[in-house]
Amino acid sequence: MIQPSSSPSSAAALPAEASDAVQAALGAEHAAVWVYGLVSAFLPAGLDAPVAAGMAAHRARRDATERFLAAAGSTPRPAEPAYLPPDPVTDQASALALLVTAEADTTVAWRAVLERTDSAELRAAALEALTTAAVRAARWRKAAGQSPVTPALPGQP
């Protein structure tokens, strides 16, 4: 279904509630890609590889989600021209905090997809997206020295 490494060949039309949730998850992926681009200017070279990996993962998930929506007969919503972080990004600490926020936001968005579809295939894809974002969030929390490294229920708003 929405696997970053593949594109669905066909998909049934989604019920409105599920389609809206997938569109919101796509929006979270767009925002995460933007965030990774922003924070790269504030992080040391030692974090270049995980930043590049995170950006690549969100781009792949974004692209796969766009293909899925198009195959389901929906027009994927485009990215915003820019996003407003909850706090200014001015140094390494604020950049890491924004990465945690972006990953947490994607877990919340993909959990909403889980809650709004009965499709086993879509649920599996949403669970994978939630899980991988939660793992990245835990890594960024650890890098930022935050504790606990992960919430008890990732994706819970």
Shape: globular
The amount of helix comes to 55-70%
The tally of beta strands, per DSSP, is: 0
- Structurally, the number of domains stands at 1
Q: Which topology does CATH recognise?
A: Ferritin
> What is the CATH architecture annotation?
Up-down Bundle
Uncertain regions: pLDDT < 50 for 5+ in a row? Answer: 5-10
Taking all Cα atoms into account, the compactness measure Rg is 15 Å
Oligomer: single chain
CATH level-1 class: Mainly Alpha
Commentary on this structure:
The protein is an all-alpha fold. Helix content is 62%, strand content 0%. The chain has 4 helices and no strands. The protein has one domain (16-144): Ferritin.
Strand-helix topology:
Blueprint: H1 16-39, H2 48-71, H3 92-115, H4 120-144
Helix pairs in contact: 1-2, 1-3, 3-4
List keywords for this structure.
globular; single chain; 4 helices; about 160 residues; Ferritin; mainly alpha; about 0% strand
Short description:
By secondary structure, the chain is mostly helical. 62% of the residues lie in helices and 0% in strands.
